[in-house]
Amino acid sequence: MTREPPAAADPRRSLPSISQLASQLAAERPETPAWAATEAARRVVAAARESLGRGLEADAATVDPADWVSRAAVVAQQLARTHPRRVINATGVVLHTNLGRSPIPQGAANAARDVAEAYSDLELDLATGRRGSRLGALEGKLVELSGAEAAYACNNNAAAVMLGLDSLARGREVIVSRGELVEIGGSFRVPDIMERAGVRLVEVGTTNRTHPRDYEGAITQETALLLKVHRSNFSQAGFVAEVGLDELVAIGARHGLPVMEDLGSGTLVDLVPHGFPADSFVPSRLRAGPDLVCFSGDKLLGGPQAGILLGRSAVIDRVRENPLARALRLDKMSLAALDWVLDAYLAGRAETDIPVVRQLLETPASLERRARALAAQLDAALAAVMSELGIETAVEADRAPVGGGSLPGFELETRVVAVRGVGEGSAFRATRAAAVLREASTPVLTRVRDDALVFDLRTLDDDAAMQLAKTVAEVAGRWRPEPTIS
Ligand SMILES: *Cc1c(COP(=O)(O)O)cnc(C)c1O
């Protein structure tokens, strides 16, 4: 038995026309770009047609015409939103990959804007009027800061790894410990990148233990390189053994093989005296004698996205002359920003002028003082809803990771302002409050812990803290529970 819907009653006929809906939207919300109004109208009508066709909605004619416009307005706003846009990071995670990793110093951003808005001497030697080196100044500064013989910079560290492998070992074997075949996230896996770089991976050792004899036993005529990879996002404890960089360099020297280290996240100020783990300070890695070390510009260094390669002159020359280098090169804005950041290191201003370094080194006492100030600002911002929702603020000690594939297993002592409901009757829900904050005009990202909203001062400078309090004042009314439909 088949059922034919009566043709005359096809509810899809009652749908508004796309062009009418688009022009109504444009008339009522003149800030909507024309393309977004048309596309939003198309999507809203298509979605309604689909649900009518599946019998999910009874009749489009019963929809209030104003409703069509507001449905389309929501879609148009999402379509036309600029991306990425500025957010407030209250998570305390200094290198948050989803939040763009390192915020660059204002001076570095200005330097980038300067060369972006106008012409520059990017590849011109002003003294001679002839073609000049794109990276010349930067290479000299990197050499000065690190003690390396030579330096090169490219688009990011994944590109630096590719360049290093391709330049030193294309078509040949590269030996890596099984304990270092890491996945960084965002699809960067060491075995995959090696395959793409055209080198053959020779794994040695086991997941937890690799010994010098494992490397020695795997070396053949085909071996071109010994590679060490930093375990950026996990740590191993227990029955473990790893061949240190200095031991690997000694093995390389005995067999006439170069050694490369993918450090992932490198620093140019020694953080060890400040209680950080020992393995991220670039000059001390280089003192162990590897031929090539590479790391990211936007992790612990605190600069723009970039990949930095440091090593012996002969090796860097091969990298520089590699045809892939052109495809992976650094753009002029990142170059200008990185140059500014290196100047700050050279002038000894990193701890004050580079946000990542400043945040990492802020003491609990300073965080505590600023947390008290933020708590007072939040009390004022929340005054209108505080008793209604039954909430209180408190300054508390907490711990947070550094994030961004840096210093795995290491946490910094920090101070937070916690906002939580008091008593059984509190209508405050931290996850709802966090969701409302994410959709504020300046979105705020927070941690939620034990049904408390937690604002971590480490990633909030004074301006961001003030903006945060303002945003909370704007949106706290929407922290009220959503009305339940009865
Ligand atoms: C982060 C990381 C990379 C990738 O660096 P990007 O700058 O993100 O390209 C490569 N290797 C290691 C060990 C890392 O930690």
Provide keyphrases for this structure.
17% strand, 486 residues, globular, binds pyridoxal-5'-phosphate, alpha/beta, 4-stranded antiparallel β-sheet, 41% helix, 17 strands
Radius of gyration: 28 Å
Uncertain spans? none
Major sheet size, sense and barrel closure: 7 strands, mixed
Strand segment tally: 17
Mean pLDDT: 93
Strand order of the largest sheet: 4-12-11-10-9-5-8
Structural class: alpha/beta
Q: DSSP helix count?
A: 19
Straight-line distance between termini:
39 Å
Percent of residues in helices comes to 40-55%
Shape: globular
What does this structure look like?
There is one protein chain. This protein is an alpha/beta fold and 486 residues long. Helices cover 41% and strands 17% of the residues. Helix 1 (18-28) crosses helix 3 and helix 4 runs antiparallel to helix 13. The structure holds pyridoxal-5'-phosphate (PLP). Pyridoxal-5'-phosphate is lined by residues 156-158, 161, 184, 188, 229-230, 232, 262, 264-265, 296, 307, 405.
Which helices and strands appear, and what pairs or packs with what?
Elements lengths: L17 H11 L5 H20 L11 H16 L7 E2 L16 H12 L6 E2 L4 E2 L4 H11 L3 E5 L2 H13 L3 E5 L5 E3 L2 E2 H7 L3 E5 L7 H7 L4 E7 L15 H11 L3 E7 L16 H6 L4 E5 L10 E5 L1 H9 L2 H4 L4 H15 L3 H4 L1 H7 L2 H18 L4 H4 L1 E11 L9 E11 L8 H9 L5 E2 L1 E3 L2 E5 L5 H14 L11
The structure holds pyridoxal-5'-phosphate.
In a few lines, what is going on in this structure?
With 486 residues, the protein is of the alpha/beta class.
